[in-house]
Amino acid sequence: MTIGLEHYLILSAVLFSIGALGVLVRRNALVVFMCVELMLNAVNLTFVAFSRFRGDLDGHVMAFFVMAVAAAEAAVGLAIILALFRSRKTLNVDEADLMRH
User: Fold this and answer.
1) Could you give the domains of the chain?
2) Mapping DSSP to helix (H, G, I), strand (E, B) and coil, where does residue 57 land?
3) Which of 37, 46, 70, 79 could form a disulfide with 12 if both were Cys (CB 3.0 to 4.6 A apart)?
4) How many of the other CB atoms lie within 10 Å of CB of 28?
5) DSSP states of 7-33
């Protein structure tokens, strides 16, 4: 039995669904942040799987750019989470909608 494109796409869809469900359901900013990263990794898996299936490097290049964006998002996201925790003493995203102390 060989692992085909369908297997990678199913795995990617499952990972993306778990990430989307985590973003929609969870209230902890760190968990939401990790779920967004999981969704980005699912997209990378799809890009690389299609690239491998087609036999070109376009998907690999796109995955590289997504990783660069994810790294920048990680730096900015962690800074925002840290600022939220320092000002509110909580990581609940429902508390982040208020700009006043």
Assistant:
1) 5-97 (1.10.287.3510)
2) coil
3) 46
4) 14
5) HHHHHHHHHHHHHHHHHHH--BHHHHH
Residues 62 and 58: their CA atoms lie apart, in Å, by 6
Nearest by Cα to 77 from 16, 36, 21, 25: 36
Q: How far, in Å, CA of 81 to CA of 30, rounded?
A: 7
SS3 state of residue 66: helix
Q: Which residues lie below 8 Å from residue 91, measured CB to CB, with a gap of 6+?
A: 28, 29, 30, 81, 84, 85
Q: What is the pLDDT of residues 9-60, one digit of tens each?
A: 999 999 999 999 999 998 888 899 999 999 999 999 999 999 999 999 999 9
Strand partners of residue 28:
92
φ, ψ of residue 92 in degrees (nearest 5): -75, 125
Using CA atoms, how far apart are residues 10 and 13, in angstroms rounded to an integer?
A: 5
The residue type of 79 is A
32 burial type by CB count under 10 A (0-12 exposed, 13-18 middle, 19+ buried)? buried
